[in-house]
Amino acid sequence: MTAAPATAHAEAPAGTAATAARDLFRDLTGSEPAGVWSAPGRANLIGEHTDYNDGFVLPFAIQHRTAAAASLRTDGRIRVASTFAAEPVEVALDDLETLFPSAAGTARAVHDSAERAAVPEWAAYPLGVAWALRALVPAWAAGTFAGVDIAIASDVPVGAGLSSSAAIEGATGSALNELWGLGLDPVALAQAGRRAENEAVGAPTGIMDQMATMLGRADAAVFLDCRTLETRSIPLGFAEAGLEVLVIDTGVKHAHSTGGYRERRESCERGAAALGVPALRDVTVEDLPRAGELLDDVDFRRVRHIVTENQRVLDTVAVLAERGPRAIGDLLVASHASMRDDFEISIPELDTTVDTALAHGAVGARMTGGGFGGAAIALVDHTLVPAVSEAVRAAFAGAGFAEPHLFTVVPSAGPRRDV
Ligand code: GLA
Q1: How far apart are CA 345 and CA 48, in angstroms?
Q2: Global pTM?
């Protein structure tokens, strides 16, 4: 069955970010950029919080993009401007080391916020990418890199769990890779993006978002083994099956540099240590009774989420291949229940969204991303998108929640040079 989408795809038409970034660059410098590079946000189909446990994830890049218009300059300084900040930030490339002193390569040893306060948080993403590339490229140390001006604009909703940060990292990394002639592959650029996020911004995240951004393909998800960084492109076939992915952004903002995300990560690390394994990736569903004996109730439930979620990712890949996308609904629903009850990262707005979407005929639904706010996704027959959307809006109004923001996303391609 083939079907045309029933609703317009998200508000921002393709190319909006690239145009805005180029306009901002002209305002900043009075000249044309040498190029404009863009990278997408992502939605995660399934596999939540499994990435920093060396496990499996199945995200896909979306059509919303962040663009970086950039040119080299001759004075060894880096200046970043963005449409979401009034003032550009400028530093000498040599000062990046002082701004983001190396945390010796450990993702865990992030600096506290006082040390990073020297630059506004948004600027730590692009500046952090420039800093992280140094570690990969010995030539940097010899001072062979020119300075650079970068202007950033984005169509990716911020704080919605759609990886606006990985999109900034991907666009900036792609621009610097080409302007500086580094020749790095997409995986190396994803690693630089993660390092920026972990050590320059201070969010102890895994590598899912950066890999999804860098390796996305149209109509496919990125099946990633977060231990080996091996990937496989998994055809999704949503459009062919008459399905849409509806994103319901609750508008509740989250930040992964603080609080709950870090605590969940620490629970997982305690669980792995108690079970005597390098990471929870090495624990199977059969090991859970033993985990129950060794761990307190909270840590046990955190571990159970990771172990069962890893299995659900593998099952989803198998079901997609064998029975197609309409058959993955139960796995999405089970994933949401596990995040709600065991990992405890959902919020009432997300639970209401999932329950309402399912009650109105969604094939499956779950919160997506790190949790504590952000968005849910619902896999919906295209004919039901208006009814499900209406029902979710009504349920939010009835519960006294702020009005949600609804739009559809399409699995899309990774980074590209736009201009
Ligand atoms: C955020 C992080 C990712 C991942 C997800 C949860 O998006 O950036 O690394 O941990 O949360 O799956």
Answers
A1: 10
A2: 0.93
